[in-house]
Fold this protein.
Amino acid sequence: MRVVVACARPEEKSPIWRAGGAVHIDVRGLDPPEPMIAILRMIDADEVDAVLIAHLDREPIFLYPELDARGWTHEILSPPREGQGCEGQGCEGEVKLRLARLAA
């Protein structure tokens, strides 16, 4: 199932925030492997209850096996369509990934 999610971000431009029942992390602009390292640190430190939305510049293909090994699922979210909250927010080319902890 594809989900359309707006690209809203808090005004203070923090790279980590909570919205819509999930923790969000924006790792756009970081050079590889920094996005993967930042995401795995959050997961390994138990800083995420159940759902993490990662905002990335590109699809993180090397992250997927690490998530599988840690018991997390991943789903690429559909980009926002015109008129759905992306105007002027730099969503072009963004990959939004929904990560969820598997039930124990």
